[in-house]
Amino acid sequence: MERKDVIAAAEAYWDENRDAIVADIAKLVEIPSTEDLAAAAPGAPYGPGPAAALAAALEIAEGMGMAATNCEGHIGFADLPGETDAQLGIIGHVDVVPAGPGWTFEPFKVTEKDGYLMGRGCLDDKGPSVVALHAVKCLAGLDVARPYTMRFIFGANEETGMADVLWYLENYDSPAFLFTPDADFPVCYGEKGGYDGCITSAPIADPVILDISGGVVTNAVPGEAWAIVRGNADVLPAVERITVADAGDDTVRIEAVGVNAHAAWPERGISAIMLLANYLLENDLCNQQERSFLELVRSLTSDTTGAGVGIASADEYFGPLTVVGGTIRKEGDCLVQTMDSRWPTSITAEEITAALTKLTDDIGAAFENTLLMVPFLVKPEDPEIQVLQDAFQFVTGDTEHEPFTIGGGTYAREFKKGASFGVNMPWIENPDWVGGEHGPDEGVAEDLLKTAFKIYVLALAELQALKID
Predict the structure, then answer these.
(1) What is the DSSP letter of 166?
(2) Which of 110, 303, 385, 449 has the fewest beta carbons under 10 Å from its own?
(3) Helices marked H in 94-181 — which ranges?
């Protein structure tokens, strides 16, 4: 079939099945599929919600005539047989983050308003998964050769650890190539490495800093931090983003307010830990041992490229390494600072460890690498990436936006070869009442889903024509 005929068939399918597609999305959105390990059970390793959503997704796939398999609640898949057992894959996820506060729409119900579908999971990732699944069904009706079996994998633990994919790859082979509809268009072909670490001071004698706390998670620029220190609030200067208050018994509470940001885009934030460390150092609110530790914290948090701690690096695919100091705490007599780095191919994990270990050794502190993920990269000129990009351009007419890499992580990085592919088009603005993934009033434009559907149908048809090892 020619491209225009594939698109015409996809248009006709959407027009005929639009209500069924929305109903399938609603069927999944109505299940609050957040992780609940306290209620985990055989067949529901991540709790009853993810298990129920997984079963519902597989039921939808079976209703399309696909052969579905539930892998003990860990993960599931549905196959559209091809001429061989070699597989092309799609992976989406049916688990969601909690609804959280601030909703004006009912979170676990699809509400249609002004061309938008509103509800938790409509964008991340139940809506896109259903759309991609219908693209597979549409493919089955096209007059195109299918040398590869299409496997649609339904994850149930993407939001909280991806244990589902680890289980899958211990029990099944990776498809030769797959994409996930859980990111942005046009196509993401690489994800930076992930590196977390923890800096722990030696026990501090006669401390000036009696307590300290900042940040909530390792992988974010902290928006708030505070410390209780020995001192006199009356003689401490006023500084922007810093609040000083008498805490009684010759102690002072110092609070810093920064700007939160995800560790993948730390330049968007202002580190409250950096602000707090600067204030404590500049006003001598620390002893010498604490000063050495805070100076290292300041070096870590004041430059998101890692230059302050000697790990700055960049490559042609990912650009610069990034680093944030996500949390600071006092644990017993020790100060503890965490870090998160997203690293390109131009540096190694061993080099990052060596640089941080040297700095901590110099001040009598300890450094531990607590998480390690190597960079994931499929070259942008590889034929699979070109097929996805060409499908996006043909359907949308958009030649401005190019394949890209990210600092975050998706399912794609766990497989033999993959990419993240839509559905977001972040350059398109939504109305103010439409929220994004993970926030209140999560929603997605129906037109965006329809466009993604056509892109997926064309991409699937043309991936089938490739020779994939």
Answers:
(1) H
(2) 303
(3) 126-140, 163-171
